[in-house]
# Entry
Amino acid sequence: MIEDEARKTSTKFEDYRLEQSILEPHRFRLSTAAAGELTFNLQKARYNTGLAAVVFDPPRADETLDVVALLREVSQNQHQLEKRFHEYSFLQKETDREISGKGQLKKETSKVYEVFPLPNREPVMKLLSENGVPLTGERAANEQKRVESELLKAEREKEKDQTRADKRREERRLKTSQNKEDDDDLDISVFLRIHDFVSPRREMFRDRDAVVFDFRPRPGFKSSNRIEDLVSKLEGVVWIDPVDKQIMRLEARLAEGFKMAGGLLLSLRPGAAVVMEQKRMDQAIWLPRFVQMNMSVKFLLFGGGDWNKTIEWSDYKHFAGDVGDYKLDAPKTETQTPPSKP
# Structure
């Protein structure tokens, strides 16, 4: 008998008999508060019928796969994706959770934004709700005004932003030509330089074929900047769409601790993990679906703790790529009942 106090149900198994040398209950009674008691009788039992033996085989290896060539194509496609990303507005939900030392949830907060990406500058984010409660009244009106002001500012400074972006690209090109790595430039090429990619195999992921392999730090690698130092401590698994050459899912964890300024500024404990997924849109466009981060962190010697953050993206809307294409909905206002006539 199984009792579920939370759902207020109970299940009783009766009339056990052998079926192909396996003892099976031929009757079970399910009692629920809403539907009363339901009785189910087993008429026949068959096992593994119609299932080919290969269904239970481990993922098949693909030793002929050129992992480096595949990842370079993925890197190129990712750059193109980042350019196309500015052609979409979307909803972004951020959920922050504070976890106690015993693994129990202490606090959870959430915010939902409407995000307007802009070329060559940070996106404009319009706060829609906090902890499931939509903004209304004066607060919603002030948020609307702030967003409109930022969009107008972006339109006025569009040429300046383009000039600054061109300058940054030229500086990056010069560094590359001089074999200098950008300390803050995190790219797949960094992983190629630092990691070994092993156990290539093929699996099904969300009803699509996927190439999957593990990555781990190359023995003896010595980092030369902050980004390399962090990446060299990561290991994990990546799923790639072999047709579109896009990352479907990536799981990475910190194999050893990471510190900035000797731990005075920031210290991450081993086990910190990141999971990221992208989803396929129309015309084979892949866009972020969610990212989840779990880490135990310490800031500035003063404090820290276990931290979990999830960011979810949805409701993508394509537009021409200019500020003028954004249409902002008027903020919600509290409805007032007009006074009745005497």
Observations:
- The first helix runs from residue 67 to 85.
- Confidence is low (pLDDT under 50) at residues 334-342.
- The chain has five helices and 18 strands.
- Residues 70-117+187-319 form one domain.
